[in-house]
Amino acid sequence: MPLPYTMVFNFKAFISSVSPKATASMAALSTIGAIALPTALPLAAQAQMSDAVNPDADTQPTTTMPTVTRAIEEANSPIGIAAGQSLMSEAEVAISDQNYTLAATKLLEARQALNDVSTHYQSLSSVFIGLDSRVNQDLRSLALESAQVRDQASYQLAVVYRAQNRPDLAVPLLVEVVKSQQPTRGLGQQAYQQLYELGFVGVAYNAPS
Asked: Is the domain of 40 the same as that of 79?
């Protein structure tokens, strides 16, 4: 409610009658009171003022750490060795149904997923060289395992392409498998045999017994 005019006038008259020295003292006291006011407020009032300044203080989201589930090891994971193996299993079902188009699609996805995860493991293992040999060795083993499964997917995909009469797509995959597995291993020997049957190479390879 505004002050009546007479009260304002009388207050002004009172101020004008006070000496300049007293006026300065009153101003200083007023300033000190204004500065000290927040600290003199009750705690409840201070809390209300704090909430007014930051109304979202109680609504800030809290960060919780996820529980350990080892989700990458599950077959329905979108990444990882298990994910690639699951896609290969789906491809085998499609092959048994002679649905080679679907089988090729699943094997392409598996090959790409396994190649990516193998690259990730190799890259991560290099970080631990000289820091922790156990972690480095484990990551190198995972990189090798994922590359092995990738080569299996590549070989199966090449066989599917042969069934579709697409040697132009099968040959590059078979060459890749031979280079990755080496002719001394079973999968490498099978891939080279496929190249021989296709007529891409002219000499059969007889692996030493």
From this structure: no
